[in-house]
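quick one before i forget lol
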Amino acid sequence: MSNLLFPSSRTYYATQLNQFPSSIKNDIWRRLSTRKYPLTIEEASSIHPEVEELLNRGVANYAKKKDRQRLKTIANTTPGGIDTFNRLVLFEQSLSEREKGIIDQEDSVAST
């Protein structure tokens, strides 16, 4: 299945695809091909904005997940580290909520 993933534009998406394990590549392909309005193989194989957006979002999510795993491992091996890790997670959540609020405000100002 992963060999079918974006065959003709493989060089264009190579940097993004190389960051993923094959299971995530298969999951992305499944999302593109089984949604309500699936992309055709030709659309998914060419340089397509939806494919690029999905890959960029996937790369960002995968990097965050790996970073959290690394931090959690470090926190578990350091005395008092788990408390620091929990505070860091709460701080990260509050930052993302504030960021969403600011983006919503900007969108409402832009729409008026």
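fyi The chain has five helices and no strands.
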